[in-house]
């Protein structure tokens, strides 16, 4: 009787969605709090700092959590943790010095945002061993508790008249303590427990060069896509003000809400996809992916319609009249949301196939398309043009992944037919 509810409560997808949802919710709460307390410009500056630092940290992430789950031969958590420390320090220095010179906002704000993202990198890595050792619930609860306490402190500081930078440092200090005392120790124990099985199966470990090569293949593609997502904000801030770029950023939290759900679902499906490919072959993985896309897309279209209408109704009430949404913006937002499902499942299946090159090519094409679309649309249509550019990029990625699978299946079929013909001959 209780088996299904208990299984659902311990679902990796549920806990990944919850943890990332809280993280996204913290950012959204702060944007709204800054807009209400310090004004739309302060909220826009914070959103622009988030956008400017994100590509650097996504690249520096090196997809280490994905490597921990999928890479053969296996890579111990301790080794990936050492790589993570070096990469986080480099990204923090690049953002603290570079971004503060480029985006022209409060330097203290940029450093606070960069430090917050560095802490998130360690939490994201901790999810890897926790998922494989079936300890994700424990690690996610520890992370969510830290975030709740941290955002409470930040909002309290903001309510007393503190600047956004000071309020953010309250969140950063709380997050650092929680990460060091709760999240990483639990992930370490989960890794030790799970890696005992690896030591019985293999004695080989990849070199640092192998790790960096595999991580950069995924990390560079992800970093470019993160930059692509930030391009509309850069154009809006340049053509208008950070108030307008902040308005767009708040609208895109509808995308982030949908993406965190799909990110959690697809990452929890990733180990199954890897196993399907290993046990039943590449064509079985392709067919399974297509079935999931066909079944999930109608539901996601309906959910996208509801989410875009909710954003239309609620954002002006919550954040103020500056963030009122037009009918055109609502329609474009809904279309973009509906295209996310095939994009995410296609991308995840490519990871399961270790076809990192496709993602890299698509990321470059997406960045080029975003730059061109924003240059044409944003100066004339403002936020609507930025949303159109974002939706066009999502459509490009979804179609490209689908075509890639079709081409790969035909090659697999042709190859198997040739072998059968040779055997018959």
Task: Explain what the structure shows.
- This protein is mainly alpha-helical and 425 residues long.
- It has 16 helices and no strands.
- The protein has helices at residues 3-9, 12-37, 40-61, 64-70, 77-102, 107-132, 136-159, 164-201, 208-239, 242-251, 253-280, 282-319, 327-338, 340-352, 356-381, 383-424.
- The longest helix is centred in the last third of the chain and has 42 residues, at 383-424.
- The radius of gyration is 22 Å and the shape is globular.
- The protein starts with a helix and ends with a helix.
- The relative contact order is 0.12.
Say how many strands there are. 0
Q: What is the overall number of helices?
A: 16
Please state the structural category: mainly alpha
What's the story with the biggest beta sheet?
none
* Binned strand content: under 5%
Reading the helices and strands in chain order gives HHHHHHHHHHHHHHHH
- Rounded to the nearest angstrom, the radius of gyration is 22 Å
Fraction in helix: over 70%
Uncertain residue segments: 1-9, 413-425
Q: Give the overall average pLDDT.
A: 83
**Spatial gap, N to C terminus:** 57 Å
Shape: globular
